[in-house]
Amino acid sequence: MKRVLLVVAVVALYLLHQDFWFWRTAHPLVFGFIPIGLFYHACFAGAASLLMWLLVRHAWPARLERESEAIEAKEDANL
Amino acid sequence: MIPAIVVFLYLAVVLYIGIFAFRHAKSKHEAEDYFLANRSIGPFVFLFSLFGTNMTAFAILGSSGHAFSNGIVTFGLMASSSGLVIPLSIFLIGTRVWALGKKYGFMTPVQMFRDRWDCNHIGTVIFVVQAALLVPYIIIGIMGGGTTLSTISDGWVPFWFGGAIVALVVMSYVFFGGMRGTAWVNTFQTVLFLCFGVIAIIVIGSGMGGFSSVVQQMLATPTLAPLLTRERISPYYFFSYTFIPLSAIAFPHILIFCLTARKMQQFKKTVIFYPICIMAIWLPCVFLGVMANRVSDVPEIRAKQEARRVLATQGRNMPPEARDELREQAAGDDVILRLLERFAPLWLAGLLGAGIMAAVMASDSQILGLSTMFTEDVFAHYGGKARFGEHIQVQTGRLFVVLLTVLAYVVALRAPETIFELAIQYAFSGFAALSPLLVAALFWRGSTKWGALAVTLWTASAVIAVAVFQAIVPAPAPGPSTVIWSLGGTEILARTPGGTSVFGFMPVVPMVIVSALLMFLVSLVTRKPRAETLARYF
């Protein structure tokens, strides 16, 4: 279930990149000088970072990591 | 003159880092040490170096230039989509390739493909296509170095000499330091150009009298207001661009760099902070590029604006050559340098110039990547290592670095820059189209070497076809595209002012989709790898 939710989150963020709702307007100007279309995509980058944190926390390929650590331990023992 | 001196000091520091890395190496004659820093790169260097490797001259010079001409769309088009797709591909593919490299000792992607699909010469075909797509980057890096040094020194350093200095510095630290030197230099450079963005925006913003008034003036000018929205770009084109960052993980030098991490843990911070790093560099550069449109007291920027105006109003009635010339005059790749010249004090312009040099000199990883590929995928694979030993293999790698740099420098002096800029444009699409190779190798046990060959040949053919098409059909003036082929009122193939469109999308979209389909269909009807090979992977 957790994995499905993460896949949905990835697809949703990918779709949110196509923000046609701010296509033809610069308003509102965030902080008085950043056009909304630019601010939205700066926030998008922040959201991508948050998504990566979620993926690292909940979908980390721990099996591969354990295998690599076992190989390392074996190599160290052989030295 | 002062900025040029600061830049030369910076080059000296970079050279010293490379030589220090050489002295720091414990086993100078081992291939894994020279080409992969003994798979020992720590978390901080891994994040900044991987990021710096991906951020070429385009991140600073090209992004502000593109934003100068196209507006704020540049950030969504190239930066925020990369902020999602690149770390996601590092998370899904980079970690797995790292684990396989650790397990089976792979040093290049082709070694993995050969092993995964039980193939030999097909691996060589993949090597040739990857190498052909990578070489233009090295050439353009040297050209960028020559141009930047020449601009920063007001012509005091000629292009040929600037290019030679950059080539010599890069070659030296790659030659001596190998992957360790390259990673340390990249880290230093990334920190420098991360600082660049922050300082540049403060200095230029206060010099322009604050951005609020500049933005209000732009909104009040009908020709400039659209640069603060995305109305000039089609949503199809915007969507197409999200396919381009797929190229990052398919670049062999990026994948080779993934193999250098000491532990898999190092990928965690990298994927989390990657989007933030992209934002920190691209946001100021894109914003400043857009703001440059309101600068009226810099003659070089005015000349660009005038060329753009003439192109828009009279371009349709001009011969293609005249349009191309105007396009070149209107290109804004040096606007950020011009803004610094105008608004930054001399000493600061020098420091910021060094930051730009840092971005321009990103060709080091590509040179080392190609050298690793040649020595592992060709020299060692065809018996060189077994015959002459590992020491000679490393020396061959170093010799390759020298020959490649000299060749790239000679070509950079003789060929027009636009050719290589175009080649890079195709190369991004080409590497994106090669990305199904990695997905299939790592996640689909049913994939076969014949599927891989089909993807590789398709990619090479599609890149050549787009290049030939754009060479034959001249780019139209800004506005509607030239439709070459339509069916029942549906536009299939068109030449746009900036390139080619297929069903309204950039060529990268059909290239990636056809690649994925070919991998699937050809693999379905061809013989699978041996059961014992599959057991090693799944």
What does this structure look like?
The complex is a heterodimer of chains A (79) and B (538). Chain A has one domain. Chain A contains 3 helices and no strands. Chain A is mainly alpha-helical. Helix content of chain B is 75%, strand content 3%. Chain B contains 24 helices and 3 strands. A 3-stranded antiparallel β-sheet of chain B has the order 1-2-3, covered by helices on one side. In chain B, helix 12 packs across helix 18. Chain B is globular. Classes of the chains: A mainly alpha (79), B mainly alpha (538). Chains A and B meet through helix 1, helix 2 and helix 3 of A and helix 5, helix 9, helix 10 and helix 13 of B.
SSE layout and pairing:
The complex is a heterodimer of chains A (79) and B (538).
Chain A (H helix, E strand, L loop, with lengths): L1 H15 L19 H23 L3 H17 L1
Chain B lengths: L1 H23 L6 H6 L6 H12 L2 H14 L2 H32 L4 H8 L4 H32 L6 H49 L3 H9 L15 H6 L5 H5 L1 H7 L7 H26 L7 H16 L5 H11 L4 H9 L2 H15 L2 H18 L3 H5 L1 H25 L2 H27 L5 H24 L9 E6 L2 E7 L2 E4 L5 H18 L5 H7 L1
Antiparallel strand pairs in B: 1-2, 2-3
